[in-house]
UniProtKB/TrEMBL annotation:
This is Hemerythrin-like domain-containing protein. It comes from uncultured Frankineae bacterium.
Length: 225
């Protein structure tokens, strides 16, 4: 069972925003009734979001930011690899059919905990130097990236600045298309599509009746005919 996403009234909001996906992924892994693909989605989406939003800021802001990010990326790559293996095992990859699912889940749990420990230190360092308004902006950007980015692990792709931004967008679009085609549940926050009115030709193509939309009153104030 997932918990509510942290609200803007929570103390330590930045830390809560970053650690929320960790908690959700671990909760899924600890619950035998849940499909571990949900943990893969939480962790993979989070990794892409922090690489796009958090890492560039840490490089610019912290005195040792580049060293921190370099070490974080190495830890995160190991997590991406084991997430990819678990994803493939659960979706029927014949090359991994002899690998116990429990072994891969344990590997994800260990790698996720190592990732969270190092990331926690980075976020605490950022909280010491960023004013509240910048922290709130960072929270908003992380939430948006989590909503729009990839939902599957991509161990061989970087989602940081420059070309990585294009990869982030492309992988996000492709992953969500695959999720839809596979009828795969996506537990992370996502945009709700806004329904559009059916046009006359759209109704014709669907073989459905078309309701003519109401028109505005005439210029003389009379009701539409």
């Amino acid at each position: 069972m997932t918990t509510a996403h942290p609200s803007s009234q929570d103390p330590g909001l930045l830390l809560a925003e970053v650690e929320h996906p960790h908690e959700q992924a671990l909760a899924v892994l600890d619950d035998p009734a849940q499909n571990s693909l949900a943990a893969v989605t939480w962790a993979a989406a989070h990794l892409a979001a922090v690489e796009k939003v958090l890492h560039p800021l840490a490089c610019r802001t912290l005195p040792d930011g580049r060293d921190r990010v370099r070490a974080q990326v190495a830890v995160d790559h190991r997590l991406q690899l084991v997430l990819w293996q678990l994803d493939r095992r659960l979706t029927g990859d014949v090359h991994l059919q002899n690998v116990p699912v429990q072994s891969l889940e344990d590997g994800v749990r260990r790698a996720l905990q190592a990732h969270a420990l190092r990331e926690h230190a980075m976020v605490e360092a950022l909280r010491e130097v960023l004013p509240p308004e910048q922290q709130q902006d960072l929270v908003d950007r992380l939430a948006k990236a989590l909503m729009q980015g990839p939902t599957r692990p991509h161990p061989d792709t970087r989602h940081g600045r420059f070309a990585g931004g294009v990869a982030f967008w492309f992988d996000g679009v492709v992953d969500r298309l695959r999720d839809s085609m596979d009828s795969r549940s996506v537990p992370t926050p996502h945009r709700t599509p806004v329904p559009r009115p059916v046009t006359r030709w759209g109704a014709y193509a669907l073989g459905a009746p078309w309701d003519r939309p109401a028109t505005r009153g005439r210029a003389d104030g009379a009701p539409p005919s």
